[in-house]
Amino acid sequence: MPSAKLAQLQDESVAIEKEITDLRAIEPKDDAEKAQIEQRLAERGERALEVAKLAQAEHDLDAKVAALRGVRAASDSDSRATVEERKAPAVHVMPGRDAKGFGSNEAAAKAGRFLRALARGDVNEMRAMGETSPTFDGKGSELVSPELFRGFIDVLGYSSVGLQVASLYQTSSNSIVVPKIGEIEASWFDEQGTMTGDEMTTDKVEIALHKMGRLIEISNELAEDAAAVVALAQTVANRFALAIGKKIDTVWLQGDAGKGIDGLVGEISNDNTVAQGVDNDGVDLAELVGKIDSRAVNTAWVVSSAGWAHIMKASVVTQSTTIGDRVLPVVMGAPVYRCLGLPTGTLALYGDFAMATAVAYKANGLQVAASEHASFAKDSVVYRGTQRVGIANHDASFVAKLIVD
Fold it and tell me: What is the pTM of this model?
């Protein structure tokens, strides 16, 4: 259970964050109001530092108490292993292996116990596992327990191609402004001379975050089975992450008019478009490579199933590379990702996607709720998972596309 002091500090931190966010969103009417807002922001900023320092002291004390409990619960060797495991960095694994995105079965079990407590409505147990965890990071993941948050993010990052190749930003607000660099070149200047040349051309891209989610129905047998907490965590986290990952890739490539997002494929100009050749041993692929902005550095291929077959038939695969836990073929020096989000008629994209696309996700945007009422007749629990994500395709000149002729 968390101490009363820690609970109070955590509640205050939420209030301070909300007040700072609200203050920064206000457009002052005059200089007097602007001065008042700046003064209040300075006061809240100072208090935020004080709260963070006090909370860290409480977390350090919790970690020491947890270590002592480990000594009482196991032998000396076992307790030392327990403490070292807490200190060890998270191990990110590929979905489909033993821990399925959680790094260890112990972490998956903790996430499963949190989900079971959520279904029962056990507020005290959820608070104990989330807010007093030794892995508390202050980024909002404690709202769903750190283990569940990391498992979800790991699987999401693996399942979504867009999250792997685009520029990725984490934010604590519902919008973020990211820089967009234009033309830039250095200039010569003599010793003690005056440097000439224009300032670096920059622009900005504002990304609005929107909520997306999924409902998952789980039988009460699985939710209540103490031996099945790992399976419960794997099922919920994987289904949430795979569903949201697929949605991100579809919107990234095809757009969403309702959310004001233009799809990357539609933004690519005719000058950066190549029609599919037939039995040309990769000539059309080579032409595609020459279409993109010359400043592109970290290039990659994003292909559909038909595009994958076209690349394989062209016999241009020269080697493979390992990125994370995934072994990818390399075509003309760039790794190849297969993606389900490409629209019909588009075989492949090639380019520097980090320069073309920005994706933002909210650190405390993952929220999981549970209800037995929605599926009472089936004796099941319905979990609702939501996450806030924003996508902006801001410079399609760094990408070219191969279409069906």
Answer: 0.66
